[in-house]
Amino acid sequence: MPSGPGVGPRADARKAHGRAGKQSRCVSTDPGRHSRGEPGAPVVIVEYGDFECPYCARTAAILHELVDSSDGQVRQVFRHFPVFDIHPYALTAALAAEVAGAHGRFWEMHDLLFTNQDKLADKYLMAFARSLGIETDLVVGDPAQPYGDAVEADYAGGAELRVQGTPTIFIDGVRYRGRLELGPLRTAVARTGSGRSADDRDDSRRRRVPWARR
Fold first, then answer.
1. Measured at the alpha carbon of residue 187, what is the angle toward residues 183 and 191, in degrees to the nearest 5?
2. What's this model's pTM, rounded to 2 decimal places?
3. Most buried of 69, 79, 138, 175, CB within 10 angstroms?
């Protein structure tokens, strides 16, 4: 997968963005890809993120706490949206995360990348891989390129949803436009749970997020 500015995900994303006005795309919550939390959690948060984005790094810790403190009621899904025009290491970091994911260590690599944003050059990515028990040569250069298809698919999907910056968050398919802080996010999650259809109401009461008003 090419990694320079103006190539890679961008070409497909431009086409996808052009289609967005004509056709709405559902927000994928596939638990098979980069999902943290209980697979059956009633509320799903999808984040489009960039490993070199400082706002994403701050939000990562908040979302982690949100999931961990939800008593199994919230699941987080991560989707790649590397803003490579201004973040030169975002795409290679995303590839390294995908390689780690193929070895069952996506979230460990996710956390390492966000807590070490000043160290995203190849030599650091290789060191992160080593610390996770992954062969260092797999996360950089040609061996990592096949994982670009997954990054590109995330990027194009985000463009269809009119994602333009990071982090962009959807809660149960609805774009979240509030403050990226724990309190407002918890409120939005609680409102999502309380707004379910009548058919889901009984189950929603049983599985209400722990901080929601009784």
1. 170
2. 0.79
3. 79
